[in-house]
Amino acid sequence: MPVKDCTSGFKCFTRKVLESIDLNRVKSDGYSFQIEMNYRAYKKGFKLGEIPIIFIDRHSGQSKNVAEIVWEHYLLFGA
């Protein structure tokens, strides 16, 4: 997908995109929900744009859920 960070940034979907995705089949939640929605829109042929955001209050440390997000995505969509 032509997105550098699928779990960050402002998300905006047009009505046409949302109507084309079977929302009852969306399986994920949290950060992986963002990945799945981007993926489903991309697979339907819609253009994806990205407006990065910066988390000012994070000065050090690591996200505690990266492995969980990757694993969930793998289970949902495969390699």
Short note summarizing the structure:
The protein is an all-alpha fold.
Structural class: mainly alpha
Radius of gyration: 14 Å
Strand portion, in percent?
A: under 5%
Mean pLDDT: 81
H/E element order: HHH
Shape: globular
- Which range best describes the helical content: under 10%, 10-25%, 25-40%, 40-55%, 55-70% or over 70%? 25-40%
| Cα-to-Cα separation, first versus last residue | 14 Å
Would you report the number of β strands?
0
Contiguous helical run count: 3
Characterization of this structure:
- The chain is an all-alpha fold.
- It is built from three helices and no strands.
- α2 runs parallel beside α3 (66-77).
- 9% of the residues are buried.
- The model has no long low-confidence stretch (mean pLDDT 81).
